[in-house]
Amino acid sequence: MTDQEPTPPVPDVVAAIAGDRPLQLVWNNAIDGLTYQVGVVPDRLFVKWLPRRSGVTVTGEATRLRWAIRYIAVPRIRSTGCDAEATWMVTEGLPGENAVCDRWQAEPETAAVAIGRGLRRMHDALPVADCPFSWSAEKRLAGARRRAELGLLEVADWHEDHRALGVAGALARLERPPAVDQLVVCHGDACSPNTLIGEDGACAGHTDLGALGIADRWADLAIATWATTWNYGEGFEDLLLEAYGVGPDPVRSAYYRLLWDLDV
Prior knowledge:
The chain has 264 residues and is of the alpha+beta class. Helix content is 38%, strand content 18%. Strand 2 (34-38) and strand 3 (45-51) form a beta hairpin. Helix 4 (108-125) runs parallel beside helix 9, helix 8 (218-231) runs antiparallel to helix 9 and helix 8 packs across helix 10. The protein is globular, with a radius of gyration of 18 Å. The model has no long low-confidence stretch (mean pLDDT 95).
């Protein structure tokens, strides 16, 4: 949401959850999902509200959060709900602020290191053998093919590096995923805002785990590094990878960045 876009009205159910506590819209995503902060630190809650028309519900993320919280710092669910208009989830706040708040945008080196180290800890901590969720390239590519058949892929929304390929060219390039480097339980949306950074400059937790699942670690790393260029400018990709503990992989990064454009 940009400063020029109108603030969406507060859904009735969100207003009811907030009661007389302070309410702040903190995120408005591309499918008109809204996330609100209710109250203030240290007792703040967050409400994620997804309209039915988006075709997405909170169910998948809630299931993943309940699984992941046994191993890593993620939001604890207070409640979930649904009505004819939307589904929603209420979670407890974690310490820290997201990696694109004003403070961390002013300290991009600290943020990039925190994201890299936090992602490595997540990948090391979440057990592949016990994970019931998949985020494999093959599964995601099958979904992209279905959306292409339905005419739902919007080339104009892709990164400028990919638009010239067109739908057919992009699908052809994605036909053969690179060999897996290392299977891990991926975050599924490792963009900078989904890492929380504490006062000490270290990763304090992760949010937005609706796509969490087993995949090559480069499915996360390709996007985490790419996102630094959107949020902090050029020059922080290698720093993030160094903090994670791996060198650059241009081939896998290019593949998973293209897949990302067709998968979001």
